[in-house]
Every structure is written in structure tokens, then in C-alpha cells.
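Dear support,

Our group has been running a series of protein-ligand predictions, and this particular one with beta-D-galactopyranuronic acid is the one our PI (initials K.S.) wants archived with full inputs and outputs. We had some confusion internally about which version of the output was final, so please treat the block below as the authoritative record. The input we submitted was:
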Amino acid sequence: MKRRNFIIALLAVLLVIPIAVSAGPIQLTVAEIHPKDYPTTQGLFQFAELVKQRSGGKILIDVKYGGQLGKGEKKVVEQVQFGALDMARISVSPMTEFVPALEAFGLPYIWKSQESMWKVLNGEIGKRLLKAVEKYRFYGLNYYEAGARSFYNAKRQIKTVENLEGLKIRVQKSQLMLDLVNTMGANATPIAFGEVYDAISKGVIDGAENNWPSYESTGHYEVAKYYTLDTHTRVPEITVASRISFDKKLTKDQMALVKKAALDTQNYVIKKWNERVEASKKKVMASGKNIITELTPAAREGFVKAVQPLYDKYGEKHKAIIKELRAAQ
Ligand code: GTR
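Confirmed final output from the archive:
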């Protein structure tokens, strides 16, 4: 090769290499506490698939499920907030520690039904609160279904709210949940989700509260046989992204693509969720060991009355949105 040609070839290689490197796919990671077959995890796989297809393989999302990136959601969200992690799918409850406006969604007996909740989440209020997280260095990507939460424990059957008195009940790391469970007469103990099974089986706590799929998938039903369907909250899930990492890694168009794909998986998760609730019920019932308690109308009234002091504490702060939520359903 002539000297001149050699220099041209060398320059071409030097110019092309950096282009080739920067043209590689953008890698994003999302943390999920649940196992592979859980509805929200399935939703994230679908999200990753849509993003891959729509970006022509330029944006790839790695779904780290099963709590691989942390057993407690609050710590995981902290990583998202300071940009060490791109995204996390978590419950709105621990998210209220970062974005207090979201507390309204976690108030007891605030939602009439699954349908009315989705009407609000997909409407103006839901969109506004998804946007509200931006002030705290997040992007809100979507909401997922999480059913209704109810109490379970290893000690005794709960037929009335008074029966909760003195039980040591695990709660998520959320002041609202702590106050709620204490208001109902139990002793609330915040523990990371992944540590609850051991804590119940060792008698460190008496029980916890969660929806059917979580009661079943975690195996909590094996160690806490009394499950009372008091459905005190219907707090949705949320997927949040790190503003630091998204602003660095994605263009405006790419960000819009990712956000749209996340929203497009919501209905898929609702469908998966409803199927899973039935499957979880079946599995728990089949064990033959669990005592499932439905509340009588009078007992339900007792539960609703018992949470009123919580509205005294949080109601003023969220007065406008509570009014809006009630009117919108
Ligand atoms: C589940 C929820 C999880 C986690 C868990 C908990 O229902 O899907 O994200 O918040 O509850 O109680 O910690």
C-alpha cells in the first residue's frame, strides 16, 4: 500500500471506530422485586419487547426481576433517584416517601373499584401525578395493577377491626402505611418485602398485608394462614425512571418512545393480573390450610370507621385531590 493510501485507510479506521461504538444499542435496566411469572414482571418483559421493536433494536431493556437489585423497594428507588439505576417498578406506597402527592392514592377505602381506579389513573389526575414525580428527579412511566391489600397473620382469625389489636404487622417502608396499620390497632413494623417470609416464620412478626398474588407468590400463605379480605387499600404500582440517566442516555424522541411503550403495557398487566388473582386463590385454597375470612357488612363498616383518624391526619394536606378522586369515580 502506498504511504498516502495507508494514511487515508488509517484515518478512516480512526473515524469509523468511535461512530461504531456510539451506534451500539442503548442499554437500560429496570428493577422488579417480583419473580419472573408475576403480572408486573410480565408487563416489563412486554415493555422491553415493545421498546426493542419500535426502536429497531437501538434501545434494549434488561428486566432484573426477583429482587436481584435489592430486597427493599425504598433503597431501589433511591438508586433511581441518584442515577445509579435507570428504572424501577415499585408500589406507590414506598414512592410516597419521595413524592408526597402520591399519598392520596394509598389512602384506605379511597377507590370504589378496579375500574374506577383505572378511570382516574388514565385520566387527568393520573397523568398529573405521573408528571409530579419529575420535580423529584424521576420520570413517571406508567401505573400497573396491584389489586386490593388485606391483612394476613399466623396467630388468629380477624373478623372485626378490633381483632387486629396488638398484632405485629409488617408494612412497606412508608409513613402512610405505618400510620394506617397503627391507626387500625395493630403494631406496624416496616420490613423489606424479601425478608417478610422469614420474619413471619421465625415469629419476629405476626403477619403482613398484601394482595392475593403476593400472598401466594411469596409463600406467605404457608406461614400466615389467616387471611381476612378487608381490602383496606388499593394502591397501584408505578414504574419510574431516573431523570439523570434518561436525560444522559436518551434523545427526546427516544424518551417519548420509551414512555409510550410503558403506557401501552398497562392493559396487558390488568388482564394478567385478573387471571393471576384467580390462580393464586386456587393455589392457596388447594393447600387446604388457610382460613379465608370475608367481612360482614357491619364488620366492614367497623374497618372504614377505624381509619377515619388517618383522614384527620392526611386529609387536610390532600383535601383537593381527595375531592377530585371522589368526584371522578
Ligand atoms: C406488592 C407490590 C410490591 C411490594 C410489595 C410489598 O403488592 O407489588 O411492589 O411493594 O407489595 O408489600 O413490599
